[in-house]
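Moderator note: this is an archived Q&A kept for reference. The question asked for a predicted structure of one protein chain; the sequence and the answer are reproduced below.
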Amino acid sequence: MCGRFKRHSKFWERIFEILSMTAPAPDVSGDDEIRPTDLYPIIGARPEGYAVGPARWSLIPRSHVGPIKEFKLTTFNARIETAATSKVFETPWRKRHCLVPADAFWEWSGDKGQKQKWQITRADNHPLMFAGLWDRTESTDGPVTSFTLLTRPAGEDMAPIHTREPVILHPDQWRDWLDLNSLPDLSQPAKASTFRALAVTTSGSLL
């Protein structure tokens, strides 16, 4: 959790306005369903200001300099409770935060063979903004920028579906997150009625 999310395409101009960014909107063409190891545009802080660029979903720490295929850890999510002490996530937690916009994410509930797929959006119809960490390594395959999504214990909305939920940020938190400033405890679950869950049929339509 969260293992797939829906590509964000509608409100990049608004995101850029809030963050006072002037770069052109990223290329958001391609499959709507983003999976681990896919490339996806993320927003990070650089000395010259905030910037958006493509990154691989599933973080590879800069300490890994061999072939990418030899990095075997599952790192598309990072538990916010332990990120600060993790060998993989500790440095990005201290130095490299990112924002990852999305329209929705998907989760599954139920027993094996009878899984129900759910599409999760914000209940207020605003886009999601995931809190993420990024890193860059000079691997033998070339330089790789990658990211992970932070997760926390599920709140009232998500608990019937899964034990975890992604950490989402509101617009007034975006700059502080990117600038490594202190924020209220993000490990606390989202308040009730933050998320809306719609069941997905086997044909892919929503109930």
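Archived answer notes: The chain has one domain: 4-103+127-191.
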